[in-house]
Amino acid sequence: MTVAVSPPRAEVRIDLAAYRSNLHVLRDRLAGDAQLWAVVKANAYGHDVDRVAQAAVAAGARRLCVATLSEARHLRQVGIRVPMLVMGPLDAPSMRRALDLDVSVTVLSTTMLEALVDDASANGSVARAGRPARVHLKVDTGMGRWGVPFDEALDALGRLAGIEGVEVEGIMTHFATADDADDDGFFELQLARFTELVAQAKQQVPGLVAHAANSAATLRSEAAHFDAVRCGVATYGLDPQQLDATRHGLTPVLAVRSHVADIRHLDVGESTGYTRSFVAAEPVRVAEVPIGYADGVRRALANTGTALVRGRQRAIVGNVSMDHISLLVGDDVEVGDVVTVIGRDGDADVTAEDHARWSGTINYEITCSIAGEPRLLRVHTAS
Predict the structure, then answer these.
(1) Nearest C-alpha neighbor of 106 from the set 115, 198, 77, 121
(2) Beta pairing, strands 262-266 & 254-259
(3) Catalytic residue, candidates 19, 138, 274, 293
(4) CA atoms of 78 and 74, how far apart (whole Å)
C-alpha cells in the first residue's frame, strides 16, 4: 500500500555548496597572504553551526570565530579541531576553561587584562598542563564598545606579553562604519589608527597576527585585510550593506519554505486574520500558509511583504499570526503549492534583505531569528 507523505509544515534549506562557494569568492579577494577566518557565532547566523563549521573547514577557513565559550565547547564536541577564537568577554575561570578546549581568547577590556594579571599572580602562571593561554588583544580604535583604549594599547600589549603562561597571538579591532559608504571618512580614520598601531605592536611582539576586517571591510578595502579577515555575514550570501549580495558574486545560503494548506474565498467586506487589517474590496482568493512569527516571519510583513508561489510575488495580507500567514493569490494557485518565504522560485526571489527592509532591521537579525525555531524542519543540500 502506498502511504501519502504530507509536505513539511515549514522548512529551512541550507545550501552548503553555496556557503563553500562564498568562502572561495571571499578568499580570492584577499590581499597578499591574508587568511580567511569564518565567523560562525549565533548558530552560524541561523544557518546551523554543526554543518556550516564543517563546510567552512572544508572550504579552507583557517580559523573559526565564535562569541562564547559554550559555542567553542560545542564545536569541539562535534569534532571541529581547527584553531578557534572566542571573541566575547570571559572571566578568569572561563579563560582557564578555554585552555582545556585549546581555543584562543580575546582580551577586550582593561578588566579582563587585570583578571589575567591577578590569575597569574595567584597561581604563578596562567598556563595549564604546560599549555599557554593564547590571547588576542582587542583595541578600541573608534567603535566605542569593546577594546582597550587606543592610547593604552601598547602598554596593555606589553603587560599582556609579560604575564607568565600567556602567548600573545594577535591584535585586533572592529570597524564601526565599514558597511556605510557615506561615513564621512570614519572608516579610513579607524583604519589609519590601527595600521599605525600594528606597525609598532609587531616590533614589540614579533609574529603577532593583526586582524580587523569584518565582511564589509573585507569587501571595501584591501588595506583592511592585514594578516587575516573575520568574515561572517557575507559567507552566508548576505550583503553587509543590505542591498544585493549577488553584486559581490555571493549566493544566498538560506531558503525558507512552506506550502499552501488551504484557500479561502473572501467576498467584498470580508477579512482575514486578527484585527481585520485586510478587508477585501472585491472578491479575492487567499491562500493560508502554515508558517508565522513563531517561525521567524515577522509581524511587520503584514500587508507589506510578499512570498513566492509558482514563481510569482504574492502579497502577504492580514496580520502575520504565530503559526500562519495569508497570501493574496489568483486562480493559478492550488492547495499543496510550495510557498517560498525567503529564497528563489524560478526567476523571482525574496531575500533576507527584503525581509529586513520590510521589518526595519538588518539581514543579520532576519536569519538569526530563525536560528532557534525548533518547529522548522532543516534540510541541508550540497548543491
Answers:
(1) 115
(2) unpaired
(3) 274
(4) 6
Task: Copy the grid coordinates of residue 205.
Answer: 611582539
Q: Which residues pair with 225 in a beta bridge?
A: none
- Residue 290 in contact with residue 371, Cβ under 8 Å? no
Distance (Å, whole) CA 267 – CA 279: 9
Q: pLDDT tens-digit profile of 284-314?
A: 999 999 999 999 999 999 999 999 999 999 9
List, in order of start, the domains of the chain with CATH numbers.
16-248 (3.20.20.10), 254-350 (2.40.37.10)
Q: What are 117's three cell numbers?
A: 594579571
Of 41, 138, 236, 293, catalytic: 41
41 assigned to active site: yes
Cα angle vertex 88, ends 180, 16, to 5°?
70
pLDDT tens digits, one per residue of 165-194: 899 999 999 999 999 988 889 999 999 999
d(CA 290, CA 10): 7
Phi, psi of 127 (to 5 degrees): -65, 155
pTM for the model stands at 0.93
